[in-house]
Design goal:
The chain starts with a helix and ends with a helix. It is extended and about 70 Å long. 72% of the residues lie in helices and 0% in strands. Mean pLDDT is 76; it is low at 129-137. It has helices at residues 2-12, 15-29, 37-62, 66-93, 118-136. By secondary structure, the protein is an all-alpha fold. It has five helices and no strands.
Length: 137
């Protein structure tokens, strides 16, 4: 039992876990306190150094193995490919947003070239209704 408590204390008292716990506590209590910008920047730099040193110690203990290189390559591949997968999934859900521009009719002398025609206004109103119906489904 003492080993379990020591392991829990060792795992839960690292800076990354404590900062996430502090952020969760602040989100739940919603205090009116603000952290000065310099302090927030210092905390983020401290966390980056803590994460980097922890990773460096782990690499120093185990060395550069094939598993480490494979993990790094998988991380790079996922970070490159995930935006494309997300774009494809979002494109399936919302095929065209914002809608394409309507075809432009040749300007007449009765109106300026920048003002929309009645046909264009009807087109946009129809597209807006179609987008609203698609969004609600």
């Amino acid at each position: 039992m003492a080993d379990l408590l020591a392991l829990a204390g060792q795992s839960l008292l690292i800076p990354m876990i404590l900062s996430f716990a502090l952020a969760r506590f602040a989100a739940l209590t919603r205090p009116d306190l603000t952290i000065p910008e310099a302090m927030a920047k210092a905390m983020s730099i401290y966390l980056l150094f803590a994460i980097g040193f922890k990773g460096g110690v782990a690499v120093a203990e185990h060395g550069f193995a094939l598993a480490l290189i494979a993990t790094l390559m998988a991380g790079i591949a996922l970070s490159f490919g995930l935006p494309f997968v997300a774009f494809g999934l979002l494109r399936l859900r919302w095929p065209r947003w914002p809608p394409l521009m309507p075809p432009q009719s040749p300007p007449t002398t009765a109106r300026s070239p920048s003002s929309p025609s009645l046909r264009q206004l009807r087109f946009w109103k129809g597209r807006a209704l179609q987008a609203k119906v698609t969004w609600c489904q």
